[in-house]
Amino acid sequence: MWKNETAKRLQVRYPIIQAPMAGGVTSTSLVSAVSNAGCLGMIGAGYMSAEQLQEQIREVKALTENPFGVNLFIPGRYMTTDEKVALSNRLLDPLKKELSVHEKTTNLPTAEKDYDNFANQLKVILDEGVPVCSFTFGIPSEEVIGQLKQANVTVVGTATTVKEAILNEKAGMNVVVVQGSEAGGHRGTFEESSEGSMIGLMSLVPQVVDQVNIPVIAAGGIMDGRGIKASFCLGAQGVQMGTAFLTCEESGANELHKKEILKATEDQTVITKAFSGKAARGIQNDFIETMKAYEDSLPAYPVQNTLTKGIRKAAATQGKPAYMSLWSGQSPRLSKNQSVDELITGIVAQAESI
Amino acid sequence: MWKNETAKRLQVRYPIIQAPMAGGVTSTSLVSAVSNAGCLGMIGAGYMSAEQLQEQIREVKALTENPFGVNLFIPGRYMTTDEKVALSNRLLDPLKKELSVHEKTTNLPTAEKDYDNFANQLKVILDEGVPVCSFTFGIPSEEVIGQLKQANVTVVGTATTVKEAILNEKAGMNVVVVQGSEAGGHRGTFEESSEGSMIGLMSLVPQVVDQVNIPVIAAGGIMDGRGIKASFCLGAQGVQMGTAFLTCEESGANELHKKEILKATEDQTVITKAFSGKAARGIQNDFIETMKAYEDSLPAYPVQNTLTKGIRKAAATQGKPAYMSLWSGQSPRLSKNQSVDELITGIVAQAESI
């Protein structure tokens, strides 16, 4: 069941992609373990500088000879106002006090800096000969896609609706990851009319497969061989799994984050914009609850993300999950704390047995 | 792939259930055609009087010797206030004027009348020897379940979370339908902590299957053999399909409703409480848009449902989909206008070929 166009293109034994979770989850040990196990490890580089990215790419290369990939966030224009920043700071101040976060957040991101960083990240990917590059929050320019493809980098887009999948195909993406409403972490939505559409994977995959000619990778809520086999039945050529890898021993996720997922139930995740200014799925907690009423008045991504950084970091250090961004998909009951090898061996055998 | 415990229990060739869509969609010709094709036709009796139900059961019996089922809504306590009713009427008045609906809505439902009707519906089911009875919006009393099971009626519950599935099993249900967030029409949610949880089917099915011992039927967004085979891979023993049957030639749905689904895309459905007071998925239109801001201030189901009845009926008669409840799941791109026989023959062959 594993040998298909996508496995061939990604040069992997199993067309199973470890989702490029940003923010330190995709440690070198996670990425290399996934690639060594015959799947595709991915560095979630969205928040990295070019230097950090280059360093991790070299670390990964030292630990695996198999292909791996890097995911980048497409920089975008974003609107924020001093009033929005002030409101956010006013809401965050009591939490900062509670967590003894004293630094003021200065140096807010700007679209200009984001574009510069993106250009530098791309240069690293080309310089280091990374075989796969995926994108979230948009589609890069024709020029960028052309450059990458000319350097034999496989380019992978992200879509949350049929329209977004078609846009990815038209832009020249080799493969498209379709993200169902079940998925944990940030929604990859980038096209205005797709906002809030929240299509479940069971609906999304066949409708996309019927409308595009490039291979489709299913993402969202897939945790084991059952989800993999089901995705193939729907017409996908591979899967991308986040939460299943997040709780693995090798993952760089905070141990508290892992624990919260391991004990969560399927009805405990919610969509929130409170942490970053962009919609994302995580386990309901006090932070989300407190900010809920103001969600639509907060600064846009990535400004809000920067404003909440100190709180998230301090909460993690101090062991307070109530203020951490506990990203998780809708299948936490299927999560396990095990090695990447155990996970992959288990799900491959399970998928083959169905 | 079709011979399993569920097919045996439901006495059908294919464990494919036609969802019991209420409000006239499940015409006698639809129900009997589904049962004649080896699947389970269901009468959506939620809004019917005992007399109407008895009449349709007899009509169906005259057209098929195969088993069929009836779905009932569990009556519940509901809170409404004169203020809420007044607000709703104030919002609906301009629409009534536009549609020339002159009758005042009197005779609002009461919990007492609902309970009486439910008792009378149950009596008909027992008197007529209906082989399968499913329930939405809750779980009937131990006494009712005992009575039905003693009369050899297969009882089928509805769940939207693992917790609700476990409650159904504990109550003695023979089978449980799990409804993913993709599903069209009313959410079957009945347990308070499950409200708003909106679990996608890819996440819901395996997590339920791991926690209950009764057979699980997958519902939500399934339209063809791909969805059926995928559901089986996830651990379901059967599927329930609504939208796929709604657009069939034999369905009693308004022709405009069928047309709107046939031309809709996956991103056009939304969850709204505006039509009935209970969350349901349908194609976005002016009515939903107009009522959106007031959704949480409207009377509860079934009061709001009664208040909007005149408008929905007039809109359908006058060909104005902008004010109709255009229930649809998230896979309208997969809908076809064909006969029930063509639908079932096609999806069975497709599922077998995967």
Précis, in short:
The structure is a homodimer of 354-residue chains. The first copy, chain A, is an alpha/beta fold. Chain A is built from 15 helices and 11 strands.
Secondary structure blueprint with pairings:
The structure is a homodimer of 354-residue chains.
Chain A: H1 5-10, E1 16-18, H2 28-36, E2 41-44, H3 50-63, E3 68-73, H4 82-98, H5 111-128, E4 132-136, H6 142-150, E5 154-159, H7 162-170, E6 175-179, E7 185-186, H8 201-209, E8 216-219, H9 225-234, E9 238-241, H10 243-246, H11 255-262, E10 269-272, E11 280-283, H12 286-291, H13 303-307, H14 309-317, H15 340-353
Parallel strand pairs in A: 1-9, 2-3, 3-4, 4-5, 5-6, 6-8, 8-9
Antiparallel strand pairs in A: 7-11, 10-11
GO molecular function (chains A, B): nitronate monooxygenase activity; nucleotide binding
Protein name (chains A, B): Probable nitronate monooxygenase
Keywords (chains A, B): Detoxification, Flavoprotein, FMN, Monooxygenase, Nucleotide-binding, Oxidoreductase
